[in-house]
Model the fold of this input.
Amino acid sequence: MEKNQSREKRRRGSSLAAAEDASPEHCPHALGNASSPSLMLTDWYQLSMLYANWRVGKHNQHAVFEGFFRKAPFQGEFAVMAGVKQVVEFISNMRFSEENVEFFRTQFPHASEEFFNYLRSVDCSDLCIHAIPEGTIVFPKVPLIRIEGPLAICQLVETPVLNILNFAILVATNAARHRLAAGWDKELLEFGARRAQGPDGALSASRYSYLGGFDGTSNTLAAYLFDIPLRGTMAHSFVTSFSSFDQLKPELVVPPAAPTDAALQPEKGVVNGPRSAPVLRGKDIIERV
Done:
């Protein structure tokens, strides 16, 4: 297992074998963060199956789970692999907190203390992940990710892993299709935060639109977390707050460090939207088709 791959190698290289620093001491308690869900984000039947496997002594049986899709999205022929890094982050940090265990006591009132001790021990230390690198063109019925380890733990992570991958692949693929349609001489910007499926959906959409070929985002949090170029125009409310062009003095409203192609240019007035973003990841993706 290669445990010290750089971020760039993870994007371009061969299959991912395991999370960095995936030993138990590097798997802290986590209830999720801006880029990784909580282990509690799972279907209840995953936990009831875990309990059944534990009761019959099959919970540590070695298992291999594979993830694939049967049809490409948007009636297309391909998809773009995405979400691998987020899956690794999630699995590296997955633990049940003491508060989680106390909640499970209310759901498993007849379970023994040994079962709750087992839940406290759940972590990533016995899991091994193999995955196609992010940004790779992938096709139906081909395994995209393989998770090996104890049966109960592999089953437990199924829901959050699919939750991460399904949306990430969908957004990255849609972005790549837009890039193919627009060509490389056009700048594609993602302004979808206000209509996204909640805060987490907005963050993921910005992250994977950029991976799929878009040039920037209006989502400030996504730019901060994932180093995506920030872009934007202006709101209708801003325009209507001025009653005449005489009130609009670009040298006062444009930040001193604004890009030269900002929407308000001191030397040109209200003219252009941003045009300066470089073509980044998406081109490398599409050229592999």
